[in-house]
C-alpha cells in the first residue's frame, strides 16, 4: 500500500449518531482496503439527500452512526495494492454511488446504480463530511490537475443527477423542458445543462429571488408557483404553441408537483421524477395518460460514463454551480436553511474550516 507522508491520525467530521442530530467531532482517519483509496476531501457539497439521510426518512436502511455527504472533491493520499487507475496526488471526486459488484445483470448493462449490492456514500458507507474519506477506486471521478475543487464538487451529485435526468427526458434541441425546483442546487445546474443541450427551459419554483437567478442562468421563462393561479395553464402558455413542454424534470422536495406534471406535459412527452419527497406518491389519470401517450419514469444517479459526460460540460465552461463556501463546522446552518426552503444554488463546505 502506497501513501503520502503526512496523513494524520485524527480528523474533523460531522457525524450522525441519532436521527436528526449531527455532531462535529474528531474521529480516527480510516484506512483504505485493497481496491480502495483514501481521499483528503478538500470540499464537499451539501445535497437535499443529505437532509433525508440525516432524518432517516426514506424506506432505505441507513447505517448508524453515519458520516453523510456524497459530493466530495479532493486528493488521493493513500491507495490499496490493487488500485491502478489513480495515483497518489491525483484530484478525484467521490459520488453517491460508492461501489457496485460489477458482475450482476445491471452492472453488465451499465446500469450500475441499480446494482443490488451498491454501497452509497453518506448513507450505507461513511461519506464526504469528513476530512479523509475511503472510497472505491473504480467509481471515483477523475479530474485534470488544474480543476477547481470547490467548483467541481457539486457536479458529483447535483450535476450528474440532473444531467442524467435530462437525458432520460428524451428531448431534442429546440424543444421545451420544464424544470420544477429550478432554483435549488440541482435546478440551477440543470438549467445550464439544458441550455447547453439546445433546449428551451421553463423554470418553475417559488419567489422572485429564485426567478432572477434562473433567468440569469439561461431559463427562457420563469413561473412562480406561489403566484400562479393555474400552474398547468401557465406552463402550457410558456410554449410557443400552447401545447406544453416535451419534457418535465421534477426536482422538487414536495409531493404536489408530482401530481401536476402530467397535466401540462405535451402529449407524447416525458415526465422524469428525480426529487424524492418523503412518503410522496405519483398519481395520474389513466385515460389521459394512455390517450395522450405520456411517459412517466424515474431517474436515479448516472453511471461512470454519464459522470464523464457531465464533467466534460463543466470542464468546457458550459455549466457552473452557483455556490457559497462555508466551513465544515457550519453544516447545521445549511440543514436549517434547507428545512426553510431558503437555499438558492449550492452550499460547498471547505473541509479545513
From TrEMBL:
<protein>
    <recommendedName>
        <fullName>alcohol dehydrogenase</fullName>
        <ecNumber>1.1.1.1</ecNumber>
    </recommendedName>
</protein>
<keyword id="KW-0862">Zinc</keyword>
<keyword id="KW-0520">NAD</keyword>
<keyword id="KW-0560">Oxidoreductase</keyword>
<dbReference type="InterPro" id="IPR013154">
    <property type="entry name" value="ADH-like_N"/>
</dbReference>
<comment type="similarity">
    <text>Belongs to the zinc-containing alcohol dehydrogenase family.</text>
</comment>
<keyword id="KW-0479">Metal-binding</keyword>
<dbReference type="InterPro" id="IPR013149">
    <property type="entry name" value="ADH-like_C"/>
</dbReference>
<feature type="domain" description="Enoyl reductase (ER)">
    <location>
        <begin position="20"/>
        <end position="349"/>
    </location>
</feature>
<dbReference type="InterPro" id="IPR036291">
    <property type="entry name" value="NAD(P)-bd_dom_sf"/>
</dbReference>
<dbReference type="InterPro" id="IPR011032">
    <property type="entry name" value="GroES-like_sf"/>
</dbReference>
<dbReference type="Pfam" id="PF00107">
    <property type="entry name" value="ADH_zinc_N"/>
</dbReference>
<dbReference type="GO" id="GO:0008270">
    <property type="term" value="F:zinc ion binding"/>
</dbReference>
<dbReference type="InterPro" id="IPR002328">
    <property type="entry name" value="ADH_Zn_CS"/>
</dbReference>
<dbReference type="Pfam" id="PF08240">
    <property type="entry name" value="ADH_N"/>
</dbReference>
<dbReference type="GO" id="GO:0005737">
    <property type="term" value="C:cytoplasm"/>
</dbReference>
<dbReference type="GO" id="GO:0004022">
    <property type="term" value="F:alcohol dehydrogenase (NAD+) activity"/>
</dbReference>
<dbReference type="InterPro" id="IPR020843">
    <property type="entry name" value="ER"/>
</dbReference>
